[in-house]
Amino acid sequence: MTSLSVVRSAFPRTAQRVRTVRSRWIDLGEQARFFGETVVSVKDAVTRYRSELLRQVASMSLGTGALAVIGGTVAVVSFMAMSTAAAGASQFYSQLSQVGVEALNGFAAAFANTRIITPITAAVAFAATIGAGATAQLGAMRINEEIDALEVMGIKAVAYLASTRVAAGVIVVIPIYGVALMMGFLAGKFISTVLYGQSGGVYTHYFNTFFIPGDAIRSFVVTIAEVIVIMLIHTYYGFTASGGPAGVGEAVGRATRASLIAAGFIILFVTLALYGQTGNFNFSG
């Protein structure tokens, strides 16, 4: 009996934990390899698989099946942005009115919606719609051996299936996020001026005073970064799904959980990188 076998027999729990940690590190390495291959293969997706890329753009934006009836991802993201912005405006007005500065509700909407509320809402919406759909599609193809069939036919499966979805997600997110941002601004103004009776001129004055156009551009950068990470994670879990339909469902759940956690870190670090510690606004006017 070797010394390693003696250690394993003497400390079975420790040995099990070591095997678990080793397995997790191997999985992490496989994910990193897949992410790198997917990003590198985006060039092939754009040049060689253009028709599949356009099909994915149409599917992600307008939706398929029952989702297309309500307008696809555009409607889902817009309604979620409106809901969160409206809830935020209501809370801002309630809190600011306690200290007699409810007129600054326009400032709160311009500052918070652009920098944090709408990007977080977009991350949740994209993970729950586009990301989960990509995992389910790729998982179904994996258990039906369709991915193996593509590789046998000489098609680069990662470029054709994963890279096209990542590139399509980046293309789709730009107009969709623009619509979501505008809907969030409109919802905040509606709550403040119609439901709470604040003067439209006062709200517009403080909104225009504190709204920084550069913040809107930077929020697009944050959202594009989070969508790239979300699509990479969801395509990986779909690409490596196993265990039949139940395994695909489990892969969708794990991918959604992992992508939301990763998106939270992306929003945190990219926001810190873009805005730093200064806040970049003057509280006056």
Which terms summarize this structure?
285 residues; mainly alpha
Structure description:
The structure is a single chain. By secondary structure, this protein is mainly alpha-helical. 85% of the residues lie in helices and 0% in strands. It contains twelve helices and no strands. The chain has helices spanning 3-10, 12-40, 42-47, 50-62, 66-69, 72-97, 105-143, 146-152, 157-195, 200-210, 213-239, 244-275. The longest helix has 39 residues, at 105-143. The chain is elongated and about 65 Å long.
Set out the fold topology:
Layout: H1 3-10, H2 12-40, H3 42-47, H4 50-62, H5 66-69, H6 72-97, H7 105-143, H8 146-152, H9 157-195, H10 200-210, H11 213-239, H12 244-275
Helix pairs in contact: 1-2, 2-9, 4-9, 6-7, 6-9, 7-9, 7-10, 7-11, 7-12, 9-11, 11-12
- SSE string: HHHHHHHHHHHH
* Quaternary structure annotation: single chain
Structural class: mainly alpha
Helix content: over 70%
Shape: elongated
Instruction: Supply the number of helical segments.
Output: 12
Question: Main beta sheet: strand number and arrangement?
Answer: none
Low-pLDDT runs? none
What fraction of residues sit in β-strands?
under 5%
Radius of gyration: 23 Å
Number of strands: 0
The overall average pLDDT, rounded, is 83
The CA-CA distance between the termini, in Å, is: 80 Å
